[in-house]
Design brief:
The protein is an alpha+beta fold. It contains 19 helices and four strands. Strands 1-4-2-3 form a four-stranded mixed sheet, covered by helices on one side. The radius of gyration is 26 Å and the shape is globular.
């Protein structure tokens, strides 16, 4: 069964008009928002069921809702009642938040930016489609007598359908929003399958691969042991040397949070390319009027434009993104940051070869996850604005440089121009 197509087919004209009337939006935009929400729901549930614990959580959530076949058949009629549609939207919204923590708000932001509807409307549309998705999966559990593993495998089989039916650019946008890095490898793997993969991938020794195998194998002198011993001594000696000379740096790097996706060292002299930023807005703090009125002439977009026009300007240059600030709860850019982000998007559109890397830099270990999310939110904003995701990258870095301001900031590196 193609769950994504089934979910989209359930959005009849009658259902879409009922939702549009409830959220007070144009029917065409509501249909676009619902299609995008349907993709997000199926991809999100697939991501959730990719682990044993996630599959069990999804299965229990569907069982807990226990949508009866009679009620499922009446959904189009229920959506005509404002009280019923409100309950459905709320239940679905809560379910999505429970199964995909920290993803509901970013998915809603993506839908709002893509379809140009109100945030509250996108919230209701996502909630309704989440509820419909649970209804469809509940039917499959009942009809096929599935357990948690069976449900996970059913969802895994939906990957090909999504790849074939969805526009690649839109699909990438949803994947980025849900933090899905390699969709082709996503999906539940049974222990038996995992064991088979390990056996297949184990390297095999073949006599014709090494023309000197007969010489090395028949040697009576323990060359392998000698080489291994020398290698160990070299490693120990190198480790001792590194500890003596770079002990502080090693301690700093090993104390970093291992859950971050990437870490990048920002050069000590990176501030040489831009003015002192000690008075810049701290992430998570809404800037006042004077701060948010940073002139375009001093902004990142202007700096990049001048850099690209400079014959001596080369890739590898670093800048700081001082005009952007973030919500302390969601780590998303504040409304005051929108003009600067839009200006940056325009620069990237005018320079199709330009590739940038955004690195959240902090001196506080506990803040490392937040600055990565902030850097990634800039990447998501630019992707939603029409910039190819392949031209953007995000990372985080725990700084121990005492010469830098004791605050978090976004460093921007020119990868290609």
């Amino acid at each position: 069964m193609n769950i994504f197509s089934y979910l989209k087919d359930s959005l009849s004209v009658e259902v879409v008009e009922a939702i549009a009337s409830y959220v007070n939006e144009n029917s065409d935009r509501v249909k676009q928002a619902a299609d995008l929400a349907a993709l997000s729901v199926v991809a999100g549930f697939l991501k959730r069921s990719s682990s044993e614990s996630g599959a069990k959580a999804l299965f229990k959530a569907i069982e807990r809702e226990n949508i009866s076949p009679e009620k499922s058949a009446q959904l189009p009629q229920l959506l005509k009642d404002r009280d019923q549609i409100s309950q459905i939207a709320q239940k679905g919204s809560n379910l999505f938040s429970h199964l995909l923590p920290d993803k509901r708000s970013v998915v809603i932001t993506m839908i709002t930016g893509q379809v140009k509807i109100r945030n509250s409307s996108a919230t209701n549309v996502l909630g309704i489609l989440s509820y419909l998705g649970v209804d469809i999966l509940g039917k499959q559990i009942r009809d096929q007598n599935l357990d948690a593993v069976g449900l996970a495998l059913l969802l895994r089989n939906q990957k090909d359908n999504l790849i074939k039916e969805v526009d690649p650019e839109l699909f990438n946008r949803v994947a980025v929003t849900l933090s899905i890095e390699e969709f082709e490898r996503l999906g539940y793997v049974t222990p038996a399958e995992e064991e088979t993969v390990e056996v297949q991938e184990r390297p095999r020794s073949r006599g014709n691969e090494n023309p000197y195998a007969d010489l090395t194998e028949s040697s009576t002198f323990p060359w392998k042991s000698v080489v291994a011993g020398l290698g160990i001594l070299a490693v120990l000696g190198g480790g001792y040397y590194a500890w003596q000379n770079y002990g502080d740096s090693i301690k700093a790097s090993t104390s970093q949070d291992s859950t971050s996706l990437e870490e990048v060292a920002v050069p000590a002299d990176s501030t040489a390319l831009y003015p002192d930023t000690s008075a810049a807005v701290k992430p998570g703090v809404t800037p006042n009027t004077a701060t948010s009125a940073t002139s375009a002439a001093g902004g990142l977009a202007d700096k990049l434009t001048k850099h690209l026009a400079d014959p001596l300007g080369k890739p590898g240059a670093y800048f700081t993104f001082d005009e952007v600030s973030f919500d302390p709860i969601t780590n998303q850019p504040t409304a005051q940051s929108t003009p600067a982000l839009n200006a940056l998007a325009e620069v990237m559109k005018k320079n199709p070869n330009l590739q940038l890397k955004f690195t959240g830099v902090t001196k506080q270990l506990g803040n490392k996850k937040n600055v990565f999310k902030q850097a990634n939110s800039i990447k998501s904003f630019l992707t939603n604005a029409g910039v190819d995701i392949m031209r953007l990258d995000a990372a985080s870095f725990l700084s121990s440089d005492s010469t830098k301001p004791n605050r978090s900031y976004i460093a921007v590196k020119v990868i290609r121009q």
